[in-house]
Design goal:
By secondary structure, the chain is mostly beta strands. The chain has 3 domains: 3-95, Tumour Suppressor Smad4 (Sandwich); 102-166, no CATH class; 184-302, no CATH class. 12% of the residues lie in helices and 35% in strands. It contains 3 helices and 25 strands. It has a 6-stranded antiparallel beta sheet with strand order 2-1-11-10-7-8, with no helix packed on it. A hairpin with a 6-residue loop joins strand 23 (282-284) and strand 24 (291-293). It is elongated, with a radius of gyration of 23 Å. This is FHA domain-containing protein. InterPro entries: Cell_Proc_Reg/RNA_Proc, FHA_dom, SMAD_FHA_dom_sf. Residues 19-68 form the FHA domain.
């Protein structure tokens, strides 16, 4: 994700598709410096590169000794520095990769940024909505069983509160294009369950290395789905491992709202590891509401007894 560094404060800022820089409190990057205009400059992701633009500032935007004309746009490559108002404030584009998805809350102006290619709203503690790139290269939003395409600047109302999406163009240069990132179909998921079924240790095996996920209660959802997949070993792949919503809720002694939150959280843990198509960790059938695990290489084992 594109990242800007303030050379004066040493602070780092994750960049959205459009980033307004200036002294005004509504700016994405606020600079409390008298030589900086209220709305001084902007950074914009064009689909292939970052561009810097002066917004008619009084004291100018400077790049490599050149003062930009009002409204002038120039490419900004990784490692390049620019200053606002002469020596008023200096920034470096220390990470020039494409921006991730984000959303801005209308009332407060708070901005939520995706991590690992997945955006959870209204927050990661109680996620109700996931926004992510699907397997066909489109931005989609998932609310319960409902998966719909979404666009940049589209407004979503979540728990009665409007959010505006900031979605970068998907031109093959997104986070999923990194060939070093493991694909979902190439990982192995090992779920170790304690004798009393109260603890689960989840480990992801990727290309010969192992990553143990921080322990979370939603791991038991994965255990339940994995067991259904493994027990259905004689069924055709398309029919294997599906569980109805009511049956799943009974097995977990919970309701569907909690199941949906756990699905969002489980996917996010995998996304943070850099796994491509982490949203596929749990699959849904919108027509029937059935759910199954999306990892094809999975095992459920007993946790070793403590000595």
């Amino acid at each position: 994700m594109g990242t800007l560094k303030n050379e004066s404060t040493q602070a780092y800022v994750s960049l959205g598709v459009r980033c307004l820089i200036g002294r005004h409190s509504a700016c994405d990057v606020r600079v409390d410096e008298r030589r900086v205009s209220a709305e001084h400059a902007s950074l914009h992701w064009t689909g292939g590169r970052w561009e810097l633009r002066d917004l008619g500032s009084r004291n100018g935007t400077w790049l490599g000794g050149h003062r930009l004309s009002p409204g002038e746009r120039v490419p900004l490559a990784e490692g390049m520095a620019f200053s606002l108002g002469g020596a008023g404030a200096t920034f470096v584009l220390c990470e020039g990769s494409p921006p991730g998805a984000a959303a801005r809350h209308h009332a407060s102006g708070a901005r939520r940024a995706a991590s690992g290619g997945m955006l959870l709203l209204p927050d990661e503690e109680l996620p109700l909505v996931s926004v992510f790139e699907d397997g066909e290269g489109n931005w989609v939003t998932e609310i319960g069983d409902d998966v719909q395409p979404v666009e940049d600047q589209q407004v979503l109302t979540i728990a009665g509160e409007p959010w505006t999406l900031e979605l970068p163009p998907l031109d093959g240069a997104t986070w999923q294009s990194d060939i070093r990132s493991p694909a979902l179909e190439n990982i192995h998921l090992r779920l170790a369950v304690s004798q009393n079924e109260e603890q689960v240790a989840a480990t992801v095996v990727m290309g010969g290395r192992e990553a143990e996920l921080p322990a979370r209660t939603h791991h038991y959802l994965l255990v339940t789905l994995a067991r259904a997949w493994l027990e259905d070993h004689d069924a055709p792949a398309a029919k294997r491992g599906w569980l109805g919503r009511d049956a799943l809720c009974r097995m977990l002694a919970t309701d569907m709202n909690k199941v949906n939150v756990d699905i969002h959280r489980a996917r996010k843990q995998l996304a943070v590891l850099g796994v491509q198509n982490a949203a596929g960790l749990v699959e849904r059938r919108a027509s029937t509401g059935e759910i199954r695990i999306g990892v094809r290489s999975v095992e459920v084992v007993r946790m070793a007894a403590a000595r």
